[in-house]
């Protein structure tokens, strides 16, 4: 166990810089979603359908069973119970909006479950942010500056 005064000796990385070797097919799938399929110019219903397609694409790339993606409305006072989250027992990704980063984060939890890995927030956060940054670096920077992506620039203590 590291004492509090020793934290400065630990090499910390920003979440968005944790993963350097994400599959090219995965990075390309995100680029295609945004640049070719023009995700951000679609209606919410169309975005939901595109995230469902991405779900199938990623499941094919990683050769794992496809989870069910559900979009649930915001329920005042119960939001923390609902979404975004991954329900391991039912294999459901629950989202309250059509955020690519939120989907990727919850999809990583599904990957952890499918591969019998522990549920690790640092891994899910790091993978989703690293992937989005690698696929769309300019959009990542713009979204980060506008405060649209959580945990950008935050150093983790788990590396």
In round numbers, the mean pLDDT is: 85
Q: If you compute it from the alpha carbons, what radius of gyration comes out, rounded to the nearest whole angstrom?
A: 16 Å
Distance between the termini: 14 Å
Sheet-strand content, in percent, reads 5-15%
Could you characterize what this model shows?
This protein has 159 residues and is mostly helical. It has one domain (15-145). The protein has helices at 24-36, 44-62, 79-82, 100-114, 121-135, 137-145; strands spanning 68-71, 85-87, 92-95. The chain has a three-stranded mixed beta sheet with strand order 1-3-2, covered by helices on one side. α1 packs antiparallel against α2 (44-62), α4 (100-114) packs across α5 (121-135) and α5 packs across α6. The model is unreliable at 1-11 (pLDDT under 50).
Task: Compose a concise summary of this entry.
By secondary structure, the protein is mainly α. 47% of the residues lie in helices and 7% in strands.
List its salient traits.
single chain; 159 residues; mainly alpha; three-stranded mixed beta sheet; 6 helices; 7% strand; globular; disordered N terminus
Walk me through the topology.
Blueprint: H1 24-36, H2 44-62, E1 68-71, H3 79-82, E2 85-87, E3 92-95, H4 100-114, H5 121-135, H6 137-145
Parallel strand pairs: 1-3
Antiparallel strand pairs: 2-3
